[in-house]
Amino acid sequence: xxxxxxxxxxxxxxxxxxxxxxxxxxxxxxxxxxxxxxxxxxxxxxxxxxxxxxxxxxxxxxxxxxxxxxxxxxxxxxxxxxxxxxxxxxxxxxxxxxxxxxxxxxxxxxxxxxxxxxxxxxxxxxxxxxxxxxxxxxxxxxxxxxxxxxxxxxxxxxxxxxxxxxxxxxxxxxxxxxxxxxxxxxxxxxxxxxxxxxxxxxxxxxxxxxxxxxxxxxxxxxxxxxxxxxxxxxxxxxxxxxxxxxxxxxxxxxxxxxxxxxxxxxxxxxxxxxxxxxxxxxxxxxxxxxxxxxxxxxxxxxxxxxxxxxxxxxxxxxxxxxx
Amino acid sequence: xxxxxxxxxxxxxxxxxxxxxxxxxxxxxxxxxxxxxxxxxxxxxxxxxxxxxxxxxxxxxxxxxxxxxxxxxxxxxxxxxxxxxxxxxxxxxxxxxxxxxxxxxxxxxxxxxxxxxxxxxxxxxxxxxxxxxxxxxxxxxxxxxxxxxxxxxxxxxxxxxxxxxxxxxxxxxxxxxxxxxxxxxxxxxxxxxxxxxxxxxxxxxxxxxxxxxxxxxxxxxxxxxxxxxxxxxxxxxxxxxxxxxxxxxxxxxxxxxxxxxxxxxxxxxxxxxxxxxxxxxxxxxxxxxxxxxxxxxxxxxxxxxxxxxxxxxxxxxxxxxxx
Amino acid sequence: xxxxxxxxxxxxxxxxxxxxxxxxxxxxxxxxxxxxxxxxxxxxxxxxxxxxxxxxxxxxxxxxxxxxxxxxxxxxxxxxxxxxxxxxxxxxxxxxxxxxxxxxxxxxxxxxxxxxxxxxxxxxxxxxxxxxxxxxxxxxxxxxxxxxxxxxxxxxxxxxxxxxxxxxxxxxxxxxxxxxxxxxxxxxxxxxxxxxxxxxxxxxxxxxxxxxxxxxxxxxxxxxxxxxxxxxxxxxxxxxxxxxxxxxxxxxxxxxxxxxxxxxxxxxxxxxxxxxxxxxxxxxxxxxxxxxxxxxxxxxxxxxxxxxxxxxxxxxxxxxxxx
Amino acid sequence: xxxxxxxxxxxxxxxxxxxxxxxxxxxxxxxxxxxxxxxxxxxxxxxxxxxxxxxxxxxxxxxxxxxxxxxxxxxxxxxxxxxxxxxxxxxxxxxxxxxxxxxxxxxxxxxxxxxxxxxxxxxxxxxxxxxxxxxxxxxxxxxxxxxxxxxxxxxxxxxxxxxxxxxxxxxxxxxxxxxxxxxxxxxxxxxxxxxxxxxxxxxxxxxxxxxxxxxxxxxxxxxxxxxxxxxxxxxxxxxxxxxxxxxxxxxxxxxxxxxxxxxxxxxxxxxxxxxxxxxxxxxxxxxxxxxxxxxxxxxxxxxxxxxxxxxxxxxxxxxxxxx
Amino acid sequence: xxxxxxxxxxxxxxxxxxxxxxxxxxxxxxxxxxxxxxxxxxxxxxxxxxxxxxxxxxxxxxxxxxxxxxxxxxxxxxxxxxxxxxxxxxxxxxxxxxxxxxxxxxxxxxxxxxxxxxxxxxxxxxxxxxxxxxxxxxxxxxxxxxxxxxxxxxxxxxxxxxxxxxxxxxxxxxxxxxxxxxxxxxxxxxxxxxxxxxxxxxxxxxxxxxxxxxxxxxxxxxxxxxxxxxxxxxxxxxxxxxxxxxxxxxxxxxxxxxxxxxxxxxxxxxxxxxxxxxxxxxxxxxxxxxxxxxxxxxxxxxxxxxxxxxxxxxxxxxxxxxx
Amino acid sequence: xxxxxxxxxxxxxxxxxxxxxxxxxxxxxxxxxxxxxxxxxxxxxxxxxxxxxxxxxxxxxxxxxxxxxxxxxxxxxxxxxxxxxxxxxxxxxxxxxxxxxxxxxxxxxxxxxxxxxxxxxxxxxxxxxxxxxxxxxxxxxxxxxxxxxxxxxxxxxxxxxxxxxxxxxxxxxxxxxxxxxxxxxxxxxxxxxxxxxxxxxxxxxxxxxxxxxxxxxxxxxxxxxxxxxxxxxxxxxxxxxxxxxxxxxxxxxxxxxxxxxxxxxxxxxxxxxxxxxxxxxxxxxxxxxxxxxxxxxxxxxxxxxxxxxxxxxxxxxxxxxxx
Lengths: 323, 323, 323, 323, 323, 323
Fold this sequence. Notes:
The structure is a homohexamer.
Chain A: E1 39-43, H1 59-67, H2 81-84, E2 87-92, H3 100-116, E3 120-124, H4 131-142, E4 145-150, H5 171-177, E5 181-191, H6 199-207, E6 210-213, H7 214-220, H8 222-233, E7 238-243, H9 265-273, E8 280-286, H10 297-322
Parallel strand pairs in A: 1-2, 1-3, 3-8, 4-5, 4-7, 5-6, 7-8
Helix pairs in contact in A: 1-10, 3-4, 4-5, 7-8, 9-10
């Protein structure tokens, strides 16, 4: 059943450092030629919403580079996403580095095309504001979705710098206000870091977003927390948003707003594995900032997590197809 | 009750990368103008006691730089130290990079001034020998104090290089000998690393210093260990000394004498939070060595721990005021 | 005649790594308290016009850090700018990282204040779009100015990304169109790098901007070229804009758009020294991008060039005062 | 009983950064002069089997450099390997960077000499293919051995690039095929990472190699797992092979094939300590790749683990001598 | 006359950090689909001949990444190679990291295909041994060629490590022996560095290779030297081999065998520009070693020099077509 | 005439990354066993005189590491210092990182031994204060010497920090005052950088030290300047002191007090080559600070310059022997 057109190049045939660095060494397919594609990995090289240290605009390229070290089969679930589904690298979304509103429009426009072609998007950011235009597209198709959100920050703030409402600290407030997300089906995991006030957490409480702080995660353990998370989203259409800064900065230093005391990449892997079986409609991995980690170590964590996400996405797509 | 003069600049008003990098974006106040100041954050840019890899002389500057990413409220205790007390950046103590004894005198001289103005000192080193002149000043005011000491090393050695008694491996032996510390009220947490002999631990046992090695900490857990630590110091006047090398070198590589297998920054946060309620008279964070981590990741851990320390110090100052 | 209030702290009194990193270790003076200030060094931590690799928003802080290694007297001209004039660090201009037009307004607003208080601005960027709002303020006071511009690029492009007119590749086209610069009195030195077309150089030719490419500079030598440059601006009010990417990337790698084959920092020093005697009204040094050179080597070149610029600015201010 | 000739130089006599960087600051002894030597630390600066990112050829030098920060006594077991046995740095094995088969021969040739002089080898690689020629030499003396193997990968693959059988992914398949290892006495700990298929694990199952994946290790804990490992090797002659990539890449980034979600260096220390009492005949530590971590942090972890290994090796040698 | 299919994506339409990093943002064309292609840029990700510090296997990928900052028109000659000819990225040649002879065969095999399709090859290495299999292919078509060779080393050595004849220090000795190069039409420019003996220069003298040491280049100047070089090759079919280590290591540190005191990148540009008009049949740029410069600065110099080479190659192809 | 005992290991026999990193891969000889040694390369791992950024204490080790890439014969003079003389690595001088006066004594003590055994010292620092104790030893033997001094700074200051007379900015003032140097036979080349005043240059003028600033060097050229330098020292016993910061910081960034606009490493090579024939009695290369350049690029420049110095020293020793 394997579609040979959509198989990654194997590292024991051609070494991983060889060849064009597409995501997972998959074929690069133009949006117009995605007829057979089930899942598209898409870069959004944009950080126009960044209020602090910049750089995630360079994320997709470094993630592609490091992703060439990923192989094809998951070592625990034994899922091979490239067997279950046709996955392709769809290249990068159009963006605009010097105008936020224009960029948001360009991104949504691209995702509208992706979704109109029935491709499930796995996004590689970019800063966290990237999630907003993606969710806008998805919501047109799916309505208000549930979301499982891994992050050090809630990204539920109202505005910055005296009234500016579109930054990487505000996407999910906007997405809830705009009806893209159903706040009662949103859970945020790993939250921590000093605060300027309680604006974000008050909003969360008000609208019903469940925040699981890092202390609670460490205390209850990964399995218990993920059981609750699964219950929150139930069988709703669900999006996964994974901010690399949820992981401890010793493992993912290349990010703009690190917070010490995070969860480990081992915990991250276990948590994502526990998302298998949900009704997933898309995912993103954001805030990898190469200028703050030119070694590529952070992007390696990011690429590894994209593979984990890809496995549960492919399983979801395959299951839905099977029905 | 907030004193507007002593409020940090908020990052959602002026981004964190903007403006002068004082500690926590606080006002820089000259020692002569500290009438309203309760807590002074003080840099001691000196590493004259370093026997191995140098660099902590650059610590205060990099810590100030990274500290501008700290916000104002603690996410768990909800303490805002800048509401409870007036905190200011007092700049750097005078030092001397080419003469140890002269430097020790200059530092004690500066802290004598600080204490005479009733300012509680939160020190950013510098190497660990910095603690000695600070303790000398504090002991003039408070007598022999208790100490909770986080570190990979005991720093209880007698001398180096054939009789040299003032290095970053000897400060607490000197402080005990000089009566600045009451050894029966001293507890050291996180100790590990290979040894040249048992000189230091024999001394500890002899005078009653309690050493909690890393294996014991990992085995008993943070809470149990901190209960014991709190009992050891009781309600005595207590100093906290936090050597960044107590934390695992993957999280804090920028230090001169790393030892693998340390506690995590998450554990460090939990431990310091459990110091709330003690009768604290000062604290230091030392051994951040920027030349060994130009990324600033170590200094970010350091700045984050300074904020944790600041919260328990502010709570202590506020409580005493309240009485 | 020395004003003690405006003297840098000497490195043989307090080492250069000690104390608050203001520009040149000068006092930090609020804009409201600049009565005695002749020259203000101002940071503009903003890179909202950057179309390629970001980071100059972090420039002012790293430049301040490295500038603490600068001493007080020029080794060749023996000018001590701090004796000739009162120089102060005025801190950073307000900016906005998520909206270009708002940022331009905030910057011009700040410079309007600076100029209304008769302070000559020495600006540390920020990307090159920073020059535009500064020139707008200066032009209100001085009319269309001459400019000596060191750069690898002309920054005379019309627009990017299908009609966006405010980027770091367009400031001087805008400034000429808006009448801030007299194009016949503008000379650009060091231009090089591959091209997408001749849009910029055609515009230059059309309006009379003189471009001295790197090959011409290398061929004729620094002195001959600077004689021509001095003639071009004559005794007009003249601005100096120094893009760090004019210097070869081996000496200044920390910048967003490097072009190989540049002039050396030695040549840069000689060129700026030959600007002494012009009727200077301001200067900037831009495009230092710390995330692309965390070593600080680029910022050290930048800080050294700011000192060179400061010497010729101070001489100009002093001369005008003397008249 | 101490042999003064084989004592490391102490860091409180001559600082650690001083002097020739031999392993552990031990004397460098030529192979011909090893009459009194019990344990030889040997570098194998070779990475000819590397199929991905190169660099371990530089491992021995950086490991020697960092090893000068190691002291002499183990902090928990209180073993001083330099008191129990005579340890020396035997320098580097001959190798050949441009021919795999020639290199394998040169290495085995050198180890044949080492073993003929009754020196137990502690090897610092080099990539993991280095283990094969070492095992070939050891097997001539000891027959098929047991092995405790710490790694992210099984290194049990058959071949690469269409039939090439000697790479750093195949050494233990070759060693088992050649009768150097008894597969029923081989245990692999820490295995993880994506897969191209099940070739390696199928082979393991077939021949009886026990694989303890990272999830099992994290779940059961270090002590339980090591009890099983000890049982597997029993009192057979046993080799320890420690691939630095077994440790999480946040702690050991300087390696060619990192896999996220590894065990910590604290766990690594506890695991090696639990090998005391086994019938050990040699050990190696491989895959430290300095070009991918010029900071030396990875080599510091490596050098620290070499010391842990040295302690259990010295104890084994000492015990056998005592009998 | 422009072929729209072979145009790079412009950076003022889509920013340079966006999209798949092919060479110069050109289309990636499979070898089978090169009917319209005049010049193919080909990566050879292999460093199997490296006797010292490894890493050039990673060269093609980092060169591709940085090459996305190159634009389309040469600023001095105004040549736009993408207007004159159809240029494409042909991806990477097959290689083998663990066997030198097999790798040489695979590379020659690939170039045989390229040449059979009448594509002129512009190669991005890889180490300098890469030139040998390329020259072997070219010589089948063109016979013994002339060569202009920029380098710090002659690469004319006979063998290493007791008889191994295929390393990155021997390619041109082999190529001359095998009749791929006509030694009387070979000139080497920039040679320097300490020596083990005169084996290579004696051979050069014997067979008639002209060596222009760095001192001679600096003394006579670029133009005079290049006049001589042009005379040496005359109108013969000529290959250009550019080893990045010819350039001073301050500008190109990411290479395995740096030698201080090299020519500048400015001089390199001028020298290559003076090759316009020769009868060029191919070129390579080798020895960029990303692990020794993760900043990408060296690769930026390399990508810039590839563009310079591309311009003179395109001009040659265009001229021959015109005849 | 070659003494086989004192030959470096050749890189085409054993690769440069293999084996113990002694200087130039020479034998490490204890001071007591130097009977046949003509020239000793000695490390002084000490930076106790550093008033600014520390680190040269790590210089000898990194210089040794990089020096293993040096071969044996000079490419221009064809001098092979290991044929002309017996050269050995004498290891490191004893030092003391925590006490300046004690360190000065230990160093002079070691050099007294070296000189008593008729070994000419080639010193690798360490900071520039290292030159003082070396000159004290040499002066006991040779009286007041001439000196050719390459540096960005005069190091002729009187004192720092209110009366401290022994820093890396004062060695030559002390050496002149103590009669170790004859100031009329001292020439300083490359001087530049901002000043706090004219204390040092006034002293130079007063006592007759000739300062050749960088502008004069660039203007007159290397040959003319070196002719003058040779005349100044004549046939006096002459010491060479080479501060790495004389070279431009783009080529030698790893140093504590960089000054932009320096001479190139190519010029440095030419200048040292022109010292052949002088009556040389010793040399040093100082201020390489590894923590500020972990890449080793600066140390590579340093090691290359040590080889240049070694060639002229060996020639001098050989000439004197010949007489």
